Amino acid sequence: MTAVEQDRNISSSFAKGLAVLAVFDAAAPSMTLAEIARRTGQDRATARRGALTLVQAGYLRQDGRMLSLTPRVLALAGGFLQANQFGRRVQPVLNRHARQMEIEVTLAMLDQGRVLLLAQSTVDHGHITYGFTAGSHIPLAHTSLGRMLLAGLPEEEAAAVLAETGIPCHTSQSLTDPAAILERVAQAREQGYCLTDSEFEAGITGYAVPVSRPGQTPIVAGCSAPRGRQPQADAERLLRGLQLCAAELRQAEAVDHL
Amino acid sequence: MTAVEQDRNISSSFAKGLAVLAVFDAAAPSMTLAEIARRTGQDRATARRGALTLVQAGYLRQDGRMLSLTPRVLALAGGFLQANQFGRRVQPVLNRHARQMEIEVTLAMLDQGRVLLLAQSTVDHGHITYGFTAGSHIPLAHTSLGRMLLAGLPEEEAAAVLAETGIPCHTSQSLTDPAAILERVAQAREQGYCLTDSEFEAGITGYAVPVSRPGQTPIVAGCSAPRGRQPQADAERLLRGLQLCAAELRQAEAVDHL
DNA sequence: CGGGTCTGTGCGAATGCTGCACACAATGTT
DNA sequence: AACATTGTGTGCAGCATTCGCACAGACCCG
Q1: Is the CB of A45 under 7 A from strand C?
Q2: Within 10 Å of residue B44's Cβ, how many Cβ atoms?
Q3: Does the keyword Transcription apply (chains A, B) (predicted)?
Q4: What is the CATH number of domain B81-251?
């Protein structure tokens, strides 16, 4: 902008516009122009142009003064999902195992210091639905998915990621000391699975296992359930199920080049 | 650009960049720079800057000379899905009815002359999986979803949309005369449901019913299955199931402001 | 080996963007 | 009711950015 000459191969106005699109998330599903400007750190006029461009392109809609995403953004994700054959190679596997385990199964990866949900089984069970969907972000430090993902990284890298993101506190049981969390991560790396209990939602236990092969971008599968009467037995059963699911995904090479 | 003065509130370089992101679809999951330039109608240098910006932002990845979408694009869709509580209000309903009907149920809307799939249940049945996911596009003219969507539009508007998009031909049974298709659309409007047989995939029958209330943006639910022994009975059963599903979605106001 | 296609880059020109400042509308606070 | 606050639309001048072309080299293919 001012001092350093920007890379001439990068379009700064495009990048700013993308930032506008990306600012819409679960916490702020619909915002006013001024709010967008604040959250993107852009000048109001700039944010306005970005937003209006998005409206014209059909990705944003304007209700009075509120702006919100339109369903068309799904088409962007659709390109990715179809390219990787998620509908054929990933979703059916998740569904099958989910049904067998009678619990929702989630596939996830790292994204900007958070856990990005890639896919989720859509099986009708009696239990609670948490309302997360593909494309949702959940925290890294206090979920089994997050810790298992960190475990897929080299140790220093995991520490770096964790340090960058900061550690919120969701429940009274959330670990707050980075070292303690890294301890659990290391444990997960050795064991080949990860359990967390009540650190993100009270009373809920999370289970996760790796899917990607060592060295690849970490991908994990997991599930979560209210803590039951026999935690041991539950854990064994669910982890076994997740391992089977992960093995099948690995074998199908369904998630190799993400 | 040249003749008309562009609206000063629209950022043209941002719009061009978005076009780059949007060219990636099922038909072209990974492309070379030159191909992107061709398909977007942009100068190669322009397309290149757009693509590189997307790479820097993490939405595109570069493998050698091929560019492809990264999972991060899912996060964009995630914002929409969470904002509209799809995970809580839509998906469970679809899943439940799908399980009861023992068939996949799809929710869809219009998008640029095509059918945009918004959500899809996936029961774990023995049948084929078509591999479509939320965010996929399917044709308008020869699917029950598409015709039912057209039926949700005023008659002239439906005709206009249909005229704009052109009419491909997928199977020997595909109707090719716009008037004949509009005939079926009108029929669907009157009946409140739509059936198609073998017009998109040979031997497959499609079923669709409206979900949105009249006057709103059309949203429909549908399913498809190989033609069975008792087409009549199948149709009755499936349409009844879809109607129930649609009614429940309507009542939950799950899709009111899309 | 040669034609075709693809990529990276440099550069001048002009255009498109930026950010500020002002006027006004809407909201909500005392 | 009047005020304070927050949001919105617009104009403008200057400058950084982006555009599009053209060239050189890499790569692929028959």
Answers
A1: yes
A2: 12
A3: yes
A4: 3.30.450.40
Domain segments of chain B: what residues?
A: 12-69, 81-251
Chain A residue numbers touching B102 (CB-CB < 8 A): none
Residue from A33, A70, A82 whose CB has the most chain B CBs within 10 Å, to mutate:
A82
**Per-residue pLDDT reduced to its tens digit, A20-62:** 999 999 888 999 999 999 999 999 999 999 999 999 999 999 9
Separation of alpha carbons B22 and A72, rounded Å: 10
Give the pLDDT confidence of A56-104 residue by residue, as tens digits: 999 999 988 899 999 999 999 999 999 999 999 999 999 999 999 999 9
Whole-angstrom distance between the N-terminal and C-terminal Cα of chain A? 33
B-contacting residues in A 141-200 (Cβ below 8 Å): none
Give the pLDDT of residue B166.
87
Determine whether the interchain pair A11/B30 forms a contact, defined as Cβ–Cβ distance below 8 Å: no
Give residue A60's region: left, alpha or beta (phi > 0; psi -120 to 50).
beta
Predicted local distance difference test score (pLDDT) of residue A128: 66
Q: Letter for the amino acid at B202? A: A
- Chain B partners within 8 Å of A31 (Cβ): none
Which CATH superfamily includes the segment(s) A75-251? GAF domain (3.30.450.40)
